[in-house]
User: Which sequence fits this backbone?
């Protein structure tokens, strides 16, 4: 059993080492409040990277999927990318040492041998995957040095099988599954007349081969006699022991060795730390646990999963060579739009079609930015450049992204390249553009069941120009009545919640795709004034209605930025 345990742990260590040698996943992720382009481009680019470089690239998202995008994913039978709220490293990114939990009933000696064999200083005590406590080498040393009470063995409720294992002994009389839980440990070094004065009922007596001493211990109702040096035990003694319910243990060790070792048979549960244990969950951030680990004298800390089950140990040493998460950003390069914790991650690439934003990197990165209507168009070009065929469902996702971002080629951001790319993708996936677009936009504009907060958050982006911070949200619809209903929901909501947005201005674009016009809702002291100046409207203009304006990226943002920079 002992060998099996050690072999199992060593096998798990090898697996851990092999896994650590494997390439950590690279997350390809779009902006917060992701739109169809952000989601579909991440999926398509991850597919391309995996086909070019092998597995290791994972599509991700930094927010919830809106109705339009969900329709697209369902239509082309694609799974939603993995949701990542924060790219700071967390405990699950650390190499966790899979030290297997042990029973609290194993002996101090066995625990000590395990630690030496495994090269660890802490053992977790578990029961059905639940952490019961911890024992360290220091705890074992203290137990060995501080135990002077000859009642300790019984006080610890020591199993007989622990005693047998520790003393390399066999049980001649008795049941090894029993527990020693009453009496003292004494050494029968005197003659029987003297022994009668200090042997009491329930004691465990260590003795040699003297018949008289063995007989005396049994007659004094000792719970067990430990016969040293593999001495022979007569039939008479065995019979008497059975009659008096006295166990007989025979060990090859001498009396001194037995006396020195017997307390090592006590179960570790008697000495383990079980209160105020410092544990960490897999989802806890390494930045948060560093301080805690630094303040404690412990070398090892248990890790629990989300259900509270024990899974392994970490130490401060594990944090020294911690590798940052690696990410590729698609469809954005604004710091305010990135996934939380991006400053703690390694950015490898940026693929985008927006203006150059405020994002900074510590090291040079591959940055591909093209003045096209959609990031998906760029991804499609990269498939072509690398000679990789686009799978049918991926072609559908890329087509949907282009149609969404260009408003079915109506947006001024749309280029001839975008339209030609979408038409080619349509042929690959076998889906008619106009019919699909109508169904897609209809699915995305159905806001009847959504709260004002959900409507506002589904496609909003934050921008910064010098000291000015502002938000622009956009809702697209093919129905004027629906846009009016959305306006009735949003205006009172944003009038109440504007202060909590922590920005100078907030704009909401209510865009009619069919009529190619936008009503701009303005919130903030100077928001409407900036909008009027941006589009040269009269100073007394109450409603901001802009014919031909449908693009946030190419029409609204540049005009707002120009005014703010003056």
Assistant:
């Amino acid at each position: 059993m002992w060998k099996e345990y050690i072999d199992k742990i060593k096998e798990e260590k090898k697996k851990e080492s092999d896994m650590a040698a494997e390439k950590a996943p690279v997350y390809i992720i779009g902006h917060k409040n992701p739109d169809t382009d952000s989601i579909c481009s991440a999926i398509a680019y991850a597919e391309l990277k995996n086909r070019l470089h092998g597995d290791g690239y994972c599509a991700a998202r930094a927010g919830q999927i809106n109705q339009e995008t969900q329709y697209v994913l369902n239509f082309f039978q694609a799974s939603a990318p993995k949701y990542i709220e924060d790219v700071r490293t967390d405990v699950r990114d650390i190499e966790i040492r899979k030290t297997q939990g042990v029973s609290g009933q194993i002996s101090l000696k066995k625990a000590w041998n395990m630690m030496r064999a495994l090269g660890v200083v802490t053992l977790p005590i578990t029961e059905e995957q639940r952490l019961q406590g911890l024992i360290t080498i220091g705890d074992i040393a203290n137990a060995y040095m501080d135990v002077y009470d000859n009642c300790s063995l019984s006080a610890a409720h020591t199993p007989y099988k622990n005693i047998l294992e520790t003393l390399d002994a066999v049980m001649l009389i008795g049941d090894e599954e029993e527990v020693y839980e009453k009496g003292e440990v004494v050494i029968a070094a005197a003659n029987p007349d003297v022994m009668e004065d200090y042997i009491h009922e329930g004691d465990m007596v260590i003795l040699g081969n003297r018949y008289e001493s063995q007989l005396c211990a049994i007659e004094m109702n000792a719970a067990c006699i430990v016969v040293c040096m593999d001495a022979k035990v007569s039939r008479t003694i065995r019979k008497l022991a059975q009659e008096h319910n006295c166990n007989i243990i025979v060990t090859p060790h001498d009396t001194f060795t037995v006396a020195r070792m017997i307390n090592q048979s006590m179960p570790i549960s008697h000495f383990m730390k079980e209160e105020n244990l410092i544990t960490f969950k897999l989802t806890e951030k390494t930045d948060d646990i560093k301080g805690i680990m630094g303040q404690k004298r412990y070398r090892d800390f248990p890790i629990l999963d989300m259900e509270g089950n024990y899974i392994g140990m970490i130490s401060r040493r594990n944090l020294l060579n911690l590798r940052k998460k690696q990410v590729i950003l698609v469809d954005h390069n604004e710091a305010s739009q990135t996934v939380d914790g991006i400053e703690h991650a390694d950015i490898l690439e940026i693929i985008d079609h927006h203006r150059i934003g405020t994002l900074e990197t510590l090291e040079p990165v591959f940055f591909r930015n093209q003045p096209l209507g959609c990031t998906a168009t760029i991804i499609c070009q990269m498939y072509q450049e690398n000679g990789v065929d686009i799978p049918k469902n991926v072609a559908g996702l890329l087509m949907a992204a282009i149609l969404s971002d260009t408003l079915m080629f109506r947006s001024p951001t749309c280029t001839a390249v975008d339209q030609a790319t979408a038409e080619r993708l349509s042929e690959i996936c076998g889906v008619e553009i106009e019919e699909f677009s109508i169904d897609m936009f209809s699915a995305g504009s159905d806001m009847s069941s959504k709260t004002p907060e959900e409507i506002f958050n589904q496609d909003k982006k934050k921008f910064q120009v010098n000291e000015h911070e502002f938000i622009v949200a956009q809702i697209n619809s093919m129905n004027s009545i629906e846009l009016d209903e959305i306006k009735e929901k949003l205006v009172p909501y944003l009038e109440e919640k504007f202060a909590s947005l922590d920005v100078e201005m907030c704009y909401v674009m209510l865009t009619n795709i069919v009529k190619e016009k936008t009503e701009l809702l303005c919130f903030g002291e100077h928001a409407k004034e900036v909008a009027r100046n941006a589009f040269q409207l009269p100073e007394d203009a109450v409603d901001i209605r802009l014919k031909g304006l449908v693009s946030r990226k190419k029409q609204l943002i540049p005009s707002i930025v120009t005014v703010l920079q003056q």
In short: Residues 148-265 form a domain with the Udp-n-acetylmuramoylalanyl-d-glutamate--2,6- Diaminopimelate Ligase; Chain: A, domain 1 fold (CATH 3.40.1390.20). Confidence is low (pLDDT under 50) at residues 17-21. The first strand starts at residue 26 and ends at 29.
